[in-house]
Amino acid sequence: MRKKIVVGNWKMNKSFDEGLKLIDEIVKELASQPADNVLKIIAPSFLHLAAASQKLKSLKGFETAAQNCHHIANGAYTGEIAAAMIASTGADYVIIGHSERRLYFGENNALLAQKVNIALANNLTPIFCLGENLEERNAKQHLEAVKQQLKEGLYHLTAADFSRLIIAYEPVWAIGTGVTASIHQAQGMHNYIRSEINKKYGKDISSIIPILYGGSCNAQNAKELFACIDVDGGLIGGASLKAVDFAAIINSFSE
Ligand code: 13P
Hints:
- By secondary structure, this protein is α/β, with parallel strands linked by helices.
- The chain has a single domain, classed as TIM Barrel (Alpha-Beta Barrel).
- Helices cover 43% and strands 15% of the residues.
- It is built from 12 helices and 8 strands.
- It has helices at residues 16-31, 46-56, 83-88, 99-104, 109-121, 134-138, 142-154, 159-162, 183-201, 203-206, 222-226, 243-250; strands at 4-9, 38-43, 62-66, 93-96, 125-130, 166-169, 211-214, 233-236.
- Helix 1 (16-31) packs across helix 12, helix 5 (109-121) crosses helix 7 (142-154) and helix 7 (142-154) crosses helix 9 (183-201).
- The model has no long low-confidence stretch (mean pLDDT 97).
- Bound molecules: 1,3-dihydroxyacetonephosphate (13P).
């Protein structure tokens, strides 16, 4: 039985006070419907991370994640944040390879492989994002595109390290667009990713790796997405900024 997981990726949103208020609202919203079977991970900005981790550490079922980390241990890299610094806030997770990092900050698979390594070395669980863009989907190259991201970003890992990952499939064309992957598209890709992991690492590992869906997932469509056999939860952008919506998504798993 794989973990059910919902991650809220706040991206570059919320002032310090607004962020802490949102955390309080999410906790309050879930008090009456706690979804104890769901791991809830909040990925605020670096600005909020330490305070958010402090606030949530005593609450069962809540964790925090950074949205990125640098690939080098420490040093003269002005404006960057190291994995060890993230771990020191109490956060246990880090998003790596989000398509916005790939697209706007030129992060390629080789760099992301280094980020995965340094995250694992600091006992952070990478939430590794992959997904095809619209051109690749239209050209029916989406399976190949995702396979390459898997291979170049993750296949250097030992089986033991690979088993520590969370994977998030986020089709780039669905992120922030209001266009969600259909159930068929989401389940098809999740099943493909799991079968590729099976080929490389075997069934014991492929059957336990959580694979989350991200891309315009909201309180209306989460239920049918999460009902797909290979979809283990969601990586939520816009809808994670509203406590009511985020709580509804968390409560969208059927037992
Ligand atoms: P949206 O939910 O806003 O489409 O964003 C998805 C995402 O990029 C989460 O990481």
